[in-house]
Amino acid sequence: MKKNPEMPHIPEGKYTRVMIRGEAYAVQASRVKAVVKKPEVRRVPGAPAFIEGVAAIDGRIVPVLNPVKRLDLEKQDPESSHSLTSGSMSLVMVEVGNVLYGLSVEHVADIMDISAAVMEPVNPVMTDDQFPFIAAMAKMDDQLVYVLNIDGLVLSGLHIKQKARDQYDHFAGGLTQKLAAPPDRDETKYLIFSAGRELFCMESFLLKSVVPAGLVEKSPDTPPGMAGLLPTLDGMLPVVDLSVKLGIDPSLDSGDGRVVVVDTEKCQYGVQVDGVSEFLRLSPGEIKPVPPGIAAAGVEHIKGIAMPEGENRMFTLLDAFKLMTTREMDSFSRRDDINMKSSDKESVESPKEALVPLLMVATADMTFALPIAEVFEVIRVGAVKHVPGTPAHILGLITVRGEPLPLMNLHCRLDLVPASDSSMEKTSSRRAVVIHWNQQPFAIEVDSVSGIVKVASEKIAAPPEIIKNVDTRFLSGLVLSEESNTSAMLLDLKALINQEL
């Protein structure tokens, strides 16, 4: 008996639906490596007509395919208003072998599940064996979706010597491994803060805490350039007024700012600033020396200029060891009510209970705490790419160091006051706390960063079963900082990313 010929195998599962000339096409989601806004494309002389050119993306030179030309759609609809030259176009990055290609599309519609039941192979009458661009067709939500054969779309009809293809595939594979490897550079985390209209930064390992400036006590004998004294559990600390010290007009009343408490090898003291905004990781190459014209002016408290790669921003890097002069430190150290000893020196003389450093953030007029050990950095909220079908508490994707990260809205996740449309639009003042928890990076959107505290583990109490207006499933404790006289709810990171809750 003659066997019936087998139909070609078409994998079922998740597919990325893209729009080209107003029609829906699908690409196996496992083949999609990224989706990026279409950058400038440079034409390559002699390349096939369907290759628009090449684009520089994340350290790679990526060939960009024009599917309208490749699928011969211009002849079918020459008057179409859908153009691939629009500035709003996207590139769907797909990998063939080890080589990355960009597929130019109008936009990515969604990610969908296509089962074998709704797919059928293409009738051979409608295809050319030499150009097998369409692998199958599927009927989804009353819409016809063409399932693309990515290998055929890229390679069919091209006369490429196998040796040349193997050589480039080997090169591309090595480049992929190199780019995927951790950066071969030492990075340091910096705290970004403001005084007046100026932005400054300081190494985070020198920070002990960040507390409200309203705690600073003023006295008639406070020396010029000093804001006053900060009460702590170990005694009073002198506080430098950064605006006065550097001759900057402050943008806020002193009580509305923050005090950054630093702990050098020599001593502890506070720096009063208008506000803290971000944690950034910077490499040595992103720290530039002070220009000679400025260095000659005797500003020894400035140790460099931080210029984050890929950003049009600069921060003045302050030297915590020189912000207070020797004369100022000597005058304060002679006072009995002031204790400027470094905590490292004190711990040798009188060991204390272990302290847990926490980042305090504010959202919906409430204060929450996150373990600083899990905080990778704190950045400004940039453009957010909405992804259809995601949970309500996921705003979409943001780009952090070239990688897409899900951005969680804390209002929605904790069932707080719902985030209004107007508040969602005002992203310039909002911050994203980038978390690396259990090798799962994600970002949490907050209204602001309110401080840094160190709390004894014994001072972290279990959360009550019920807290007004807060879903306690996402809390791991209640924090009370006696030093800064603040309280906060400690977030449970494991629960936050658990999609089943």
From TrEMBL:
Example GO biological process: signal transduction
A cellular component annotation (GO) from this entry: cytosol
Pfam families per record: CheW
Domain CheW-like: 12-159, 187-329, 355-501
Gene3D superfamilies: CheA-289, Domain 4 (2.40.50.180), SH3 Domains (2.30.30.40)
Signal peptide interval: none
PANTHER family: CHEMOTAXIS PROTEIN CHEW, CHEMOTAXIS SENSOR HISTIDINE KINASE-RELATED
This protein's name: Chemotaxis signal transduction protein
